[in-house]
Amino acid sequence: MTDQPKRDRVVIFDTTLRDGEQSPGATMSHAEKLEIAELLDDMGVDIIEAGFPIASDGDFNAVSEIAKRSKQSVICGLARANFKDIDRCWEAVKHAAQPRIHTFIGTSPLHRAIPNLDMDQMAERIHDTVTHARNLCDNVQWSPMDATRTEWDYLKRTVEIAIKAGATTINIPDTVGYTAPVESADLIRRLIADVPGADEVIFATHCHNDLGMATANSLAAVAGGARQIECTINGLGERAGNTALEEVVMALKVRSDIMPYETRIDTTKIMHISRRVATVSGFPVQFNKAIVGKNAFAHESGIHQDGMLKNAETFEIMRPSDVGLKETNLVMGKHSGRAALRAKLKELGFDLADNQLNDVFVRFKSLADRKKEVFEEDLEALMRDQSKGDGERIKVKFLRVICGTEAPQSADLTLTVDGEDHQVTATGDGPVDATFKAIKQIVGHEARLQLYQVHAVTEGTDAQATVTVRMEENGLIVTGESADTDTVVASAKAYVAALNRLLMRREMAGPDADVKAISYKDVV
Ligand code: KIV
Ligand code: ZN
User: What pLDDT shows up at residue 510?
Assistant: First the structure.
C-alpha cells in the first residue's frame, strides 16, 4: 500500500495558502505566506498546499521557500493537467523533504466543455499528465474537479486511470458546494468499492461551503472511507469558503465516541493561527463562528452564567484551553515592564528580537496610557499593526476631526508619503467620510471602497476598535486593517494600509495579482 495511513488516522491537508488565498481580496504577501506555513507545520498539519506555482513568480517563490523551510509537513503545489504546469510545480516543491504534486482537471460535463476535450481525449490527458507527474515525484495527488457533478461512470473511469498512472492520493472535490452528507459518504464508499486499485490509495475530501455543509460533508466522507480532509483556517476560500480546519479537527476530537479517528493537530495552536490568518488575509472571523469566533466560548445570558459557575460542562462541550484560549486574559497596565511584555507576547506566540520588542514597547506604553487595562486581544491587535509597518510608503502623521450634530464634519490630516509631509483639510458626511476624502485628496486613486467594518477588540468605552477596509481597483482587491482606541484614527490607518498594499501590488506589476488572473479554464 502506498502512503496509506492507519485506518483510524485522518490526514489533514491545509489549503489556506492556495484555495484560501485565491479568495478575492485575501492575497497575502511573501512574508505572510512563510509565517502561516510555519505555523501550519508547527501545529501538525500533515500536508500544506502552499500555492499554484505556475500562476505567478510570487506564487512560485513562496512555494519554493516554504518547501525549503518545511519541517514535518509534506509540501504540495497545484498544477493543471499539462506538462508545463506540472514541471513548474515540481521545480517549486522539489526542495521539500517531502514534496507532493497535485494535478487536476474538471471532469463534469460543464467543465469538460471548457478545454473542449471529449471523454476519451480527457481520459488520455489524465493518463499522460499523472504519469508525467509520477515520473517526477513519488507523491502525486489527482483531483477530478467538480467530481460531485460528474457522471458516475465517467468519474469511476477517470479515477481508475489516475490510480493506474501512479496517483497516490485521489481527491474528490465538491467544487461548488453542491453535495449533501449522505451523498458525500456514499460517493467515497462506492468509489472505494468499485474502482480497481482503490485500496492502494488514499481518498481525500475537498468541500466548499456554498450550502453551509462543508464540515458535515467532509466528516461524512470520512465515514465513507476518506482518510484525508482538505480544509483551510477559518474556512477561508472563494465564495462561502472551504471546510474549516478548526471545525473538522475539533469535531473529531470532541466526538471521538462516534468518529474514532485521530489527527496530528495540536489544537491548542488553533486560536493563534486563526487570528493570524484573519489579519493577513483581511477576512475577519464572524463573532459566532464555530470554534474560533469571539463568542464561541462566551456565556452572556444569566441562565448560562449561572450554570457555568456551578459546572462548566453545563454549557461547554470543550474547554477554551483546548483551542488555545486562556481562562483569564487580563494582562497588563501602564506599570508593566519590558520583560513582562516580552513574556506575555511569547505566550501569545510572538517571539520578538530586541529591536522589535523596543518598538512594540513604545506602542504598548502609549496604549496603556489611554486604556486602563490592556488585554491579550489588545496586544494581538498591537502586533497586527506592528507587522504592517515595514516598507510602507504612506503613513498617518496627524489627524484631528471636528464632528457633532452640525454638518459638515471635517478632518485635518497630515500624511507622510515617501518621506514627505502633505497636509489637507476636507469635509464629509461624518468624520470617517471626511477623513477618507482627505486621504484621497493627498493620494489620488481610483480604487473603490468595497467594505468598511468596525469591531471592538474588547469591552468598555475605552476599547480599541479594529477597522477593516477592502478596496478594488481594476479587478485588484486589497484589504487593510488597523486598531486604535480612536475609531477614526483606526479607520484612517486601515484605509492607508489598504492603499499601501495597492501601491505594492501595482509596483510588482502584478505577480501576486496574476494569481487571480490565471484561470483554471486555461487547461490546455
Ligand atoms: O474546489 C476545487 O475543485 C479545487 C480543485 C483545484 C481541487 O480547489
Ligand atoms: Zn477548492
Answer: 46
Q: Is 104 in the pocket of ligand 1 (CB under 6 A)?
A: yes
The tens digit of pLDDT for each residue in 203-247 reads 999 999 999 999 999 999 999 999 999 999 999 999 999 999 999
Residues shown for the chain? 524
Residue 99 binned pLDDT confidence (cut-offs 50, 70, 90): very high
Q: Please indicate whether residue 21, judged by its CB atom, sits closer than 6 Å to ligand 1.
A: no
Statement: residue 104 has pLDDT above 80: yes
Residue whose CA lies nearest to ligand 1 atom number 1: 175
Q: What angle do CA 278, 281, 286 make, to 5 degrees?
A: 40
- What would the grid cell of residue 453 be? 467594518
Q: Report which of 226, 250, 122, 130 is spatially closest to residue 174, judged by C-alpha positions.
A: 226
Q: Which atom of ligand 1 is nearest to the CA of 78?
A: 6
| Element holding 135 (H helix, E strand) | helix 119-136
Q: Is the minimum distance from the CB of 364 to ligand 1 under 6 angstroms?
A: no
**Quick one: which of 217, 223, 222 has its CA closest to 235?**
217
Whole-angstrom Cα distance, residue 172 to residue 371?
Answer: 51
Candidate from 14, 16, 19, 184 with most ligand 1 atoms within 8 A of CB, to mutate: 19
Cβ atoms 49, 23 nearer than 8 A: no
pLDDT digits (tens, 9 = 90+) for 262-305: 999 999 999 999 999 998 888 889 989 999 998 888 755 555 55
Chain CA centroid to CA 94, Å: 24
Range with the poorest average pLDDT among 18-27, 249-258, 287-296, 323-332:
323-332
Q: What share of the chain is helix, strand, coil (3-state, %, to 5)?
A: 45, 20, 35
Q: What is the per-residue burial (b if ≥16 Cβ within 10 Å, else e) of 239-250?
A: eebbbbbbbbbb
